[in-house]
Design goal:
By secondary structure, the protein is mainly alpha-helical. The chain has helices at 5-8, 34-48, 52-58, 68-78, 87-100, 120-125, 134-142, 148-155, 169-173, 187-196, 219-225, 232-239, 241-252, 254-270; strands at residues 114-115, 162-164, 206-208, 277-278, 292-296, 299-303. The longest helix has 17 residues, at 254-270. The protein is globular.
């Protein structure tokens, strides 16, 4: 899983900077059951497939069609609440994924609009590699006025979920081009990873990101302190001096981690891109899609995307 993909992609769907400020309870009167519906769908999904919570947290692109869980939420909510935007559904679902996994609960600020476009390039530009080091992560977060503390606390999203072998094999067999394993990996943990992710094996095999992959807690930070971080972008937070102190504090004080994580999530939700948006009638497609040229038997025709 790519580090913090779920929170950084909020930048792509935030409303214009000139719009009214975001605030909790925006739809309390017009769509009072929205949060309950999302919570119910998430609860059922996580019972069927426990990793669904982590998937929602890290795979929330800037439209509902990316994930089947949020896609179902979109339909179930927009059906009785037509005219309400779909983005807040994804944000509700991410918050609930944390809470239903044993983590904190917080009020979600509402009022965002859905994006008019989808850009893979934009996503790639703000998505750190699992090979990233703490220095590059600090620089990335600083571009959005987010602090070192925000970086470390929000990295705690890896308290739940799994990562794929293709994201870790370089640490095991050719760290920094040396042809050797990453020396920061605890030896017994490295043996476990060697067995899970052999050289030349299936890169799509998954491993737990921490020792309690279905519980949102501070075990992730305890594992980093003990050299058991799955991704380089995780373990680097403890090996780098500027971030190490926060990792150690969160490993010792789960309540402090929860407080800072919530603060970071709220700050990320407040970030605004300055791009225009809309409230979609169908959360899978923009309201008035542009015409698309279609070539049939050598002739050009025009077709409007279905809604």
């Amino acid at each position: 899983m790519r580090l913090l993909f779920f929170v950084l992609c909020l930048l792509l769907v935030a409303i214009s900077a000139s719009a009214p400020p975001l605030q909790p309870g925006s739809y309390a009167k017009s769509c009072p059951n929205a949060e309950l519906i999302v919570r119910d769908v998430m609860k059922k999904a996580m019972i069927r497939k426990p990793r669904s919570g982590a998937s929602v947290m890290r795979l929330q692109f800037h439209d509902c069609f990316v994930n089947v869980v949020t896609g179902r939420c979109c339909w179930m909510i927009l059906r009785p609440c037509l005219g309400r935007n779909s983005l807040y559904i994804i944000i509700f679902a991410s918050r609930d994924a944390v809470a239903l996994s044993g983590g904190p609960h917080w009020e979600v600020k509402l009022g965002r609009k859905d994006s008019l476009t989808a850009s893979q390039k934009d996503s790639d530009d703000i998505t750190p590699s699992p090979r990233a080091n703490a220095s590059s992560l600090i620089d990335l977060f600083a571009k959005f006025d987010l602090s070192v503390k925000d970086l470390v606390s929000l990295s705690g999203s890896h308290s739940i979920g799994n990562g794929r072998c293709f994201s870790v094999v370089f640490r095991l067999y050719n760290h920094s081009g040396t042809g050797c394993p990453d020396p920061t990996i605890e030896p017994k943990f490295r043996q476990k990873l060697d067995k899970l992710c052999p050289l030349g094996g299936d890169g799509n095999v998954t491993g737990d990101l921490d020792f309690t992959p279905h519980v949102f807690d501070n075990q992730y930070f305890k594992d980093l302190v003990n050299g058991r971080g799955f991704l380089n972008s995780d373990e680097t937070l403890f090996t780098f001096p500027e971030t190490r102190g926060y990792v150690r504090r969160y490993s010792e004080d789960e309540s402090e981690f929860f407080r800072d994580f919530v603060d970071g999530m709220i700050m990320m939700g407040d970030l605004q891109s300055g791009r225009p948006g809309e409230i979609r009638r169908n959360c899978r497609v923009v309201n008035d899609p542009p015409p698309v040229k279609v070539v049939v038997r050598g002739f050009q025709d025009r077709k409007i995307l279905s809604r």
